[in-house]
Predict the structure.
Amino acid sequence: MGLVHAGNIIEAVKLGTKEMQEEWKAMPEEDRLMLSAMMNKMSLSEADFSAQIKANGLLVIEGPSVTLTVKQEHKDDNGTSTSAVTQKFKMDGAACRVSR
């Protein structure tokens, strides 16, 4: 998420599985630009996301499948709400790659 937030989408894509990288490359440039802008806007800085993972993250490893779930709590004048960010990963040899 930190790379996306910093605008380094090309580096972020390299962390994905081979299938995800191929999908990204096959996408029309207009779609990649739109998706990059949306992901950048919705992402957190590396420091903020790291703090959230440390406070409320859960990493589950089941064979080659890995899931990171980070719960987020939002408080305002209307009360408190919770949401969760989930990211799936796939073990690829010694590497852990972002997947869908």
Notes: The two ends are 14 Å apart (CA to CA).
